[in-house]
Amino acid sequence: MENLAYDARVLFSIEKSEDPRIVIVDIDEKSLAEEGRWPWGRNRMAKLVDELFTHYQVQLVGFDVVFAEPDESSGLKVLQQLARDEFKDIAEYNERLEEITPSLDYDRIFSESISNRPVILGYYFNTETVDKQALQTGVLPKLALTKEHFKGQSITVPIAVGYGANLEEFQNHAAGGGHFNPAIDDDGVIRRVPMFYEFDGKYYESLSLAMVRELFGEETVEPVFAEGFASTEEDDYSSVEWLRIGPSLIPVDKNIQVLVPYRGKQGSYPYISATDVLHGRVDVSLLKNTIVLVGTSAPGLFDLRTTPVQSKYPGVEIHANLIAGMLDQSIKERPAYVLGAEFVILLLVGLLITVLLPLLTPVWTAAAAVSILILSITINYSFWQNMNLVLPIASSVIMILMMFLLNMSYGFFIERRKKSEITGLFGQYIPRELVEEMSHDPKAYSLEAEEKELTVLFSDVRGFTTLSEGMNPQELALLMNEFLTPITKIIHENRGTIDKYMGDAVMAFWGAPIDDPKHTRHALQAGLDIVERMRVLRDEFLAKGWPEIRIGVGINTGEMSVGNMGSEFRMAYTVMGDAVNLGARLEGLTRQYEVDVIVSETVKEAVPEYVYRKLDRVKVKGKDEPVTIYEPLALKEEVSRDELDELKLYAQALRYYRKMEWDNAELQFLNLKKMHADRPLYDFYIERMKYFRDNPPAEDWDGVFTFTTK
């Protein structure tokens, strides 16, 4: 992950332009087609060097190729063998051979061409043996550093067991030499190059380092330790952090490796075909005073490497990037203290996420996680771009994502558990929509008992025992399901909570567990809807041959205790209190007054937009205080003029009744009965007045009738 993050930053920061200071003379397909297959004769390589320095006036040439074997392509060796074996007595042959030998000794020609010129030869090290033998060919260049430079220090550099270097005469005539071994990471990508290889206890520099050292005219490389001072016998520093060459300070890691400062994809430095240089076909201005690397981009010569910027990238351009980075001091630095920085970053970001995310909603949690992620990446890239500092980022990104997923997963499972708890506790009482609403903030709801204003509704089928006689259990169960199901649906649709089913009776309440400012309004609407639905069911039942059902509904609003109540064996979420008992009594009174719905005065006051018929003022069983009871009719705008006129006449009849003017009251009720024969309430009052004639109330009677039964 860290490698991928590193590659992403490299790709994001690549430049689009060429760096003209460093030119790659390319042994490309064009050159191979014109000059023949590789390797070319050393005379041709000598001509290439001569052209570069004499005609094009370059500053420095480095070879990303090895000249490990003598060049016998001129045939000189064969001629010399003939001189020894066949023509040793022929003076003319030997004289002529001696004359042409200098022109046929291609190796000598090449060594003379590089002599006294700033030419650095490349070579390679082997880190593994071949057939249990460490191959050593050619001659290594002179040392750049020895162990004396690191006296007392524990450093780690790649150790070689063999090498493939240049012929001795070439290396002795060249200005220096450097290895071109990269460090290949586990994923096969080249991100770093060792500045030194150790062989036989000695340290040999890289091609790029040797070229820069030659360019600055420095005899050696100076290691600089973490505190910024060169090593001495008294020093006891832990690791090398930089290499100093003249004005250039090169950051290295604990293995004295350098991160390659890739400028871009292939072509970030000018490529010129080697054959064009040989034949003078290149504009002198393109090469004058430049640093030249001679290498190849031809696939057949196997110097294409995998890099962060390209999967097939010429190895010679890796050296170009390193040289440019050393000159510009733009090489990225990954010092040892980044481990501590990584710990601090993880600690700070982790604490921030730990404290912040649990306080937020899922949407804000995602937004916060993305913001923290973007902020972390931005800060990291700022250090990369502005300070050339490579801070670890993968661990932070992984931690942020994992903590976000953990938080969301934890929240999801906790939410699911809370939803399950809410559903288990309230799912049988309230509709699914309200359960979902409660699950958004489960902490706001509790099973603990509390006192609050609620509205309770009781409904019961009149004469159900008589109706059910003669029905088998299956028919009875089906009948109950047929009318209890629509009643439950109506209560749920009006945000009610089912308290319990008591045979054919239903008890429900509003205002808990979810607060409902309009609990009385919703309860009243539910009661009227239930009555209307029962009228429709009545016809359906008759069509099935079932008995006709009539229902009574009582509704009351008041202070009640609500919560989980019961015993250690069984608990239920229910309501209790005098207001609840009154609601039950009101339902019972519907049989007396033969009306469908009776509500208390508190309901009437809470829902004034309805028109009510005042039924009576009564004392119910178990309650000393009288209550006024009403029959809700409809919304004010839905009541007709005739109904309003009837209510006026009815109100007048009640006034006569309360004044104990039985004759006037009876006459008024009789007139109402003639006009509305379907209203049993008027017969109810006519019968009661007959009772009062026989059993007159006290002279100070307040119009309250006391019921002695439920």
Short description:
With 710 residues, this protein is α/β, with parallel strands linked by helices.
Give an account of the 3D structure.
By secondary structure, the chain is α/β, with parallel strands linked by helices. It is 44% helix and 20% strand. β12 and β13 (248-251) form a beta hairpin. α3 (42-55) runs parallel beside α6, α4 runs antiparallel to α5 (91-104) and α21 packs antiparallel against α22. The longest helix has 33 residues, at 394-426. Residues 228-237 have low confidence and may be disordered.
Helix-strand blueprint:
Elements: H1 2-12, E1 22-26, H2 29-35, H3 42-55, E2 60-63, H4 76-85, H5 91-104, H6 106-114, E3 119-126, E4 136-137, E5 162-164, H7 168-173, E6 176-179, E7 183-184, E8 190-194, E9 196-199, E10 202-205, H8 207-216, E11 222-225, E12 240-245, E13 248-251, E14 257-259, E15 271-273, H9 274-278, H10 284-287, E16 291-295, E17 304-305, E18 313-314, H11 315-328, H12 338-356, H13 362-387, H14 394-426, H15 432-439, E19 450-461, H16 464-468, H17 473-493, E20 497-502, E21 505-510, H18 519-544, E22 551-566, E23 571-576, H19 578-593, E24 597-600, H20 601-606, E25 610-619, E26 627-635, H21 641-658, H22 662-675, H23 680-694, E27 705-706
Parallel strand pairs: 1-15, 1-16, 2-3, 2-16, 3-6, 4-5, 22-24, 25-27
Antiparallel strand pairs: 3-5, 7-8, 8-14, 9-10, 11-12, 12-13, 17-18, 19-21, 19-22, 20-21, 22-23, 24-26, 25-26
